[in-house]
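Postdoc handover notes: sequence design on the structure in folder B. Input tokens:
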């Protein structure tokens, strides 16, 4: 990476073991014709002039520009530097550290045992919305995820199931063909440890990250449609950054953009995301401006999570009642399901999509968990700050500057005082507090009827309404009462720019936009539903590596200019 007119050492070398294998991989990609559609260098202005769309000068120059420093940005950057022997510069919106959802998740990644079976499984659940060539390319690369985890010195083990399923299932749809090929790699120490290790590799490779970078605008040659770099505000200063070979968009989802979620997702409000709060969909208008086609905008990965509508903590925080004295009611106050049927953390959002014509809206977005004083006194409802497992924005290694949450109070009183838990001595009082969160819906009389009927079922020891086990039901008969809202959400949205099997971004005619790539949740290839446990981390690994290799094989668009190289 070159800043202004600084003299740089442009020698290329690998800083890690396995450089020979990396070079072989790059050569294989080049022989496969990966540079064939972007060999033409940009058509620049006549000698002595600069067209208005091209900066007069560049503040930074690099081979590969990566926009977004999460898991996909990490895998792109280290692959481009190590295997592709290219200079890399990363832009990150957060003020420090970066990491995205990859640094705050469980650290599980897909590692299929059979590429053909994996591709069959993907084609089965995507229902034709993921092109076969994409499924084949993803599967062929994903089987190498364990190899790469070892190569980058990550402590991992291969499991036949996920932590969330108690190691019983390794994918969301085990009855579909090819599902038996899916297995899971699990990193010791979860996403936090993954990030710490890989960030050190990034530093060892000399890859610079510019933090506080936002408002990017891609620089496109209007004749060739090539992407030559971008403008960005870095620490408040507008800068022009040249990407000699390619720009890789790894900018994450739009979990914290309410307008986009309302426009694109299948259900709204979707406030249950516990992920990276800097994921506000900034990349969507960026790629639209240069002609990109969007895909999979209505798809997401997640389940059901509380959110307290607190601007200081905009992400979801998981809660769990500590005894069986609780009931779930919909927005009107009606009990609506068996509370003991846990929602999948990956596809549990599907339960929210039932539209209720009586209220002209989604009846359980949000739904409410209601407890009484006995449930309140039973123990800590939220994350234990001393617990070994922490995910979401509750992660000990996160700095305060990016929104670390320090955990729930032991007696629940701090959160009650903060207004996160709604309370009332009567159902009328409680309903009035719930109305402040979801105005115009909660009916105090229906809420009272639902809880009283539930208490009758508890006394009878059976639940003919929803088949909750009788020995898992305790009545709510000790006021005051407490409640909190639960929304669809979870890990991430999946929509973004459509890409091909080389991770190249496509325009509205399915033609490549030269020198523009995407990886990760920014245009995830999964469609129709989310079916790949560990798939988000694997998405980062797979398309980050594929895209980096392909981009590094390109000739620089400014190769005829005078450079130190």
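Designed sequence:
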């Amino acid at each position: 990476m070159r800043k202004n007119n600084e003299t740089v050492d442009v020698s290329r070398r690998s800083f890690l073991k396995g450089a020979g294998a990396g070079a072989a991989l790059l050569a294989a990609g080049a022989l496969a014709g990966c540079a064939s559609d972007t060999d033409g260098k940009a058509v620049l202005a006549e000698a002595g002039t600069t067209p208005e769309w091209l900066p007069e000068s560049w503040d930074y120059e690099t081979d590969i520009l990566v926009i977004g420093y999460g898991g996909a940005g990490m895998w792109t950057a280290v692959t481009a530097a190590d295997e592709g022997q290219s200079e890399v510069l990363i832009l990150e919106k957060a003020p420090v550290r970066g990491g995205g959802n990859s640094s705050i998740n469980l650290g599980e990644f897909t590692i299929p045992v059979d590429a053909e079976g994996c591709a069959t499984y993907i084609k089965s659940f995507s229902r034709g919305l993921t092109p076969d060539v994409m499924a084949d390319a993803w599967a062929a690369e994903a089987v190498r995820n364990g190899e790469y985890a070892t190569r980058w010195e990550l402590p991992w083990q291969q499991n036949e199931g996920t932590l969330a399923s108690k190691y019983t299932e390794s994918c969301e749809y085990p009855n579909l063909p090819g599902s038996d090929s899916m297995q899971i790699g699990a990193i010791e120490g979860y996403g936090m440890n993954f990030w710490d290790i890989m960030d050190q590799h990034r530093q060892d490779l000399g890859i610079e990250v510019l933090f506080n970078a936002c408002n990017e605008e891609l620089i496109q040659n209007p004749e060739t449609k090539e992407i030559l770099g971008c403008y960005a505000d870095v620490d408040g200063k507008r800068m022009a950054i040249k990407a000699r070979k390619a720009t890789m968009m790894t900018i994450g989802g739009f979990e914290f953009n309410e307008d986009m979620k309302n426009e694109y997702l299948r259900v709204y409000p979707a406030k249950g995301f516990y992920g990276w709060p800097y994921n506000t969909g900034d990349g969507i208008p960026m790629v639209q401006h240069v002609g990109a086609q969007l895909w999979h905008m209505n798809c997401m990965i997640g389940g059901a999570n509380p959110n307290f509508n607190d601007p200081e903590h905009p992400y979801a925080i998981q809660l769990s009642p500590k005894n069986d004295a609780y009931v779930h009611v919909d927005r009107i106050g009606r009990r609506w399901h068996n509370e003991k049927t846990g929602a999948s953390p990956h596809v549990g959002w599907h339960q929210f999509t039932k539209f209720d014509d009586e209220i002209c809206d989604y009846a359980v977005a949000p739904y409410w968990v209601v407890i009484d004083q006995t449930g309140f006194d039973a123990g800590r409802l939220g994350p234990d700050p001393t617990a070994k497992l922490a995910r979401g924005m509750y992660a000990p290694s996160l700095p305060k500057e990016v929104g670390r949450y320090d955990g729930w109070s032991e007696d629940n009183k701090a959160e009650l005082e903060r207004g996160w838990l709604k309370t009332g001595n009567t159902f009328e009082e409680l309903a009035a507090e719930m109305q402040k969160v979801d105005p115009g819906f909660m009916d105090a009389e229906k809420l009272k009827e639902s809880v009283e009927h539930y208490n009758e079922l508890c006394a009878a020891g059976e639940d003919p309404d929803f088949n909750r086990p009788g020995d898992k039901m305790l009545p709510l008969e000790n006021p005051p009462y407490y409640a909190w809202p639960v929304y669809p959400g979870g890990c991430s949205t999946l929509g973004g720019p459509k890409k091909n099997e080389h991770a190249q971004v496509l325009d509205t005619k399915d033609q490549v936009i030269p020198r523009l790539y995407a990886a990760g949740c920014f245009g995830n290839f999964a469609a129709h539903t989310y079916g790949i446990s560990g798939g988000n981390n694997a998405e980062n690994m797979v398309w980050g590596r594929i895209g980096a290799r392909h981009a590094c094989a390109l000739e620089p668009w400014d190769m005829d200019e005078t450079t130190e190289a």
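Context for whoever picks this up: Residues 535-552 form the longest helix (18 residues). Don't rerun without checking with the PI first.
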